[in-house]
Amino acid sequence: MTRSKALRGVLATLVIAALLPVGSAAVSSAAPRPGPGAVPEAASQQGAVPQAPLPSNVSAAPGGPAGAQADKPYMGWSSYSMQVYAGNGGTWINEKQITAQSDAMHAKLQPYGYNRINIDAAWNDGIDGYGRPTPSAKNYPSGFQTLIDHIHGNGQKIGIYAIPGIGQQVIDANLPVYGAPECKTGDLPVRPLVKADYWGIGYKIDFSKPCGQKYIDSIADLFASWGIDLVKFDSVTPGSGVSNLTLDARDDVKAWSTALAKHKIWLELSWALDINYADYWKQYANGWRIDWDVECYCEGVALTAWPNISRLFPKLADWWRHAGPGGWNDLDSLNVGNGQMDGMTKDERRTAATLWAVSAAPMYTGNDMTRLDQYGLDLLTNREVIAVNQAGRPAHPVSTTSNRQVWYSLNADSSYTVALFNLGQTDANMTATFADLGLTGSAKVRDLWAKKDLGTFNGSFTANDVPIHGARLFKVTPQSNSTIKVNDDDLRVSYDGDWKRNGNYEVPATSEPLNVTISDSAGASAPGAANVGTRTLEINNDNAQIVYTGSWSRSTGRGLGDYQDDVQYSEQNGDSFSYSFVGNGVDYVTETHNSQGEVDIYIDGQLKQTVNTYQADGRGAQQVVYSISDLPNGAHTIRGVKKSGQFMLVDKLNVRQESLLNPDKATFNKAQPADVSIEISRDPGELAAIAGLVKGTDYTVTGRTVTIKKEYLAKQPVGTVALDFRFRGDYRDDVHATTANGASASFTFTGSSVNWSTALAPDQGEADVYLDGKVIRRVNLHGDARVTARQVFTATGLRNAQHTLKIVKVSGDALRHDTFGYTIK
Predict the structure, then answer these.
(1) How many other C-beta atoms can be found within 10 angstroms of the C-beta atom of residue 670?
(2) Would you tell me how many other CB atoms lie within 10 Å of the CB of residue 621?
(3) In what residue span(s) does the Carbohydrate binding X2 domain sit (predicted)?
(4) I need a labelling partner for 212 at 20 to 30 A (CA). Which of 55, 135, 371, 463 fits?
(5) Helix (H) or strand (E) holding 182
């Protein structure tokens, strides 16, 4: 969230770990991390380095520099939340305090897996004769090495903090680089100088010259000689409030990853990393912060606040599939250990702990570990919940179209982790439907927080009275003869070769109404109008499928020209709305006024534009402030995040869809009854149903012609009747696709049967199916029309053991993969 000037002043004493000369205080009045919406001066600087291409030669192994230790998310503690809370952040991390935290972890949390002590900004205060950072003698009078040795002696690992670039005084000192005397620090920066970080503390290093890498190597080698186990690398761009590449720290990330890899030191990136570059972060780092700081910057009052937790849900709905062994989505500190400090209710604290666990996020607390209360200890030390986190299976939502959300993941043993999150404003009974998880059959359900078996359920189970901002967490274990459907984006599916998710290869499920005007009078009915190919849906701000995150209210009867005379509004920066739709375009329509400001617009998780809803004079009603019309026709999500101004308003959204009905309007006159016929643009087999009508009785399908029977229409009341045509889509509206012959998708399971379902399409050819390493069949995936969810391979009667199914592209322009399915014996 954007900090007030007062809060910024509170944090002005925090020391950013810039690489500055001995005796120079690395203090910046810009030290506090900005909230969503702040823009640094560096973002508009002249001479910014142009966008660098993604690397073709990768020196660091995929998954970042830490190696096998990053196969699971780490568990531990970070100092930053307490540095903010205490108000003396630059000195709070002294040796006495860090020693106390290490000892408290050893006694209370380490038996449960917590073993990392991460010291944030202000651990250093100068440099050595080679331009490398030196620890603060003031904070560590006994020597930083003594503190490191104490932490290691407790069986823990230690992390420290750095940022991109090189400081001005290091440049001016023109020092030799350790181990590379031919290199001087004065020759390291890009010329002319270019800012390297959000705060403008350091300058960009020229990594096109070997000396740039050698300098970072020298620092990493020094850290390794001390015994450092993790580096938190802050102010990484694109991200950290800047996504336009005027600040670009990707070269720094690659250089640090390369330098740390030989020492197996964990590299954690911060903050609010740009999802557009997720593959890059995954290549070079072991973790990446996906959002802004969790701290509320409430000195002496609270560590965090509920809005800083609730805003993570839509982010994770985009980011979840990017996490896995080697690299993890970082949600920041889990501050749930002390109710008198956390800033949340007990239910909210448990919801946060549940979210961190099911997201397989690094599980590190920011509390003062010497002051954990019993409830906080219970949250942090529940072994069954910790096991969910350490399984490394990031959960994802069944849907984000409401504030009562079911999140789930399929585990390696065929059990499911299921979390119910009530983000709404009232208590609620919440149901998990097994079919939504991909499960058909019965399952045992265990409550992980209560550590209690609830019994066996068939088809679904319901948790009663989930409190406001509360959560429930379950393990769902399918029983014998249950079948499991595994989507193409599940982490249990592995891909070899060049694959992409969607990329306009997908066909989403959708519906479209045929509006029939019913009359009862003499005179001919007017014919239906020919369809123009695109239709526009107006979605009012109170639509139940718009998800509002934060503190939103609805204002009605304003009489100011609002669509349907109402708006939704928020006064809190960082609050957001999101709406998922099927179509090829969308408009954000709102009011413009001098009380309003900027809004960040994201499409499918990518920042597209910052729009300004400020209007100096007067008021603009129903203004289209953002519009996009060139999206691939498919499933998309628009999200708007309040950035500035007193208010942010939502009036309506206009969604443009490719029409599937021709015409999409018709008339029926009871005085002269006649069947109504229309053409559908998709394969007739893709028409799942017309809601409420019986096929063969109320309507028929011949080729692409659908005929609504006059007998059905004659029973309808005079007026307009909307007949909802429902079309199938790919499972969960997505596929993985490849154009490369030899590319493969494989899946390992334990069961007695297996099947493969995918699309048929004109651009597809043949694929070979392997079972346990042997070619079983070559299947033809070509079709005259694009159709969805066709079962193209089945094997039954398998020995109830572990098997691997593998699909290999043989021919055709493309191969799509949708789902694997298997039966538990």
Answers:
(1) 16
(2) 16
(3) 662-728
(4) 135
(5) strand 180-184
